[in-house]
């Protein structure tokens, strides 16, 4: 059995490259053999890429998150375009909209998001979408701007109806669930998992955040904790863990254009 962590902020777990390698080693021991490293900010991307580029099974996304909308940097577009062509950079992200925190104004967030969707289309990459309280606007934008290679709603937070609306619209999208799926009160997430096709589901740790319930005494989430989310999901769906893990692995590889072997 093998697992694919589709969203992990390795640089936020530890800034020290030796400790980061230890995190990756512990993940491998837990059968988490592929990880998408998400930069904390575009300014940190090159440093993290250099730290991790020699590590087998580590892939990267590059992008400007809503949190950076006020100061993405003068050459942010050039940085993304250059970085997207580096080995093992497989997605543009995380990008999106966040209306729950005051990251600039909505207009600026939307403009930044659209610009990066268009870049992803031109670069032939899928996008990793951050969404907090912005489902309506995201849907309207994606109707016209969803890149051909598709997208994943990371750390999914909407309800089952929104997911079904995206699928009914013919969107090439996946829905990623993190450790908060294991919380008893996450009924919207439980309902979503129960009602969407299993070939559209991926999982993530969102490390160092979203600690699975069984690890709540820990200070931060680790990629090694990913199987806990998969186990919870398999019990909820009444699907054997090995069967579900194979499907999720296949979905993750398809999303990011990677071979299954």
Provide an overview of this structure.
The protein has 261 residues and is α/β, with parallel strands linked by helices. 41% of the residues lie in helices and 17% in strands. It has ten helices and eight strands. Strands 1-2-3-4-5-6-7-8 form an eight-stranded parallel sheet. Strand 2, helix 3 (45-52) and strand 3 form a beta-alpha-beta unit. The longest helix has 18 residues, at 106-123.
Beta-strand percent range: 15-25%
Kindly report the spatial arrangement of strands forming the biggest sheet.
1-2-3-4-5-6-7-8
**What structural class do you assign from the helix and strand content?**
alpha/beta
Tell me the major beta sheet. 8 strands, parallel
Mean pLDDT: 96
How many β strands by DSSP? Answer: 8
Please estimate the helix content. 40-55%
Unreliable residue stretches: none
N-to-C SSE string, H for helix and E for strand: EHHEHEHEHEHEHEHEHH
Could you write a compact summary of the structure shown?
The protein is α/β, with parallel strands linked by helices. It has helices at 10-13, 17-29, 45-52, 76-83, 106-123, 135-145, 160-168, 187-195, 226-237, 241-256, and strands at residues 3-8, 32-38, 58-62, 89-98, 127-132, 151-153, 173-177, 201-203.
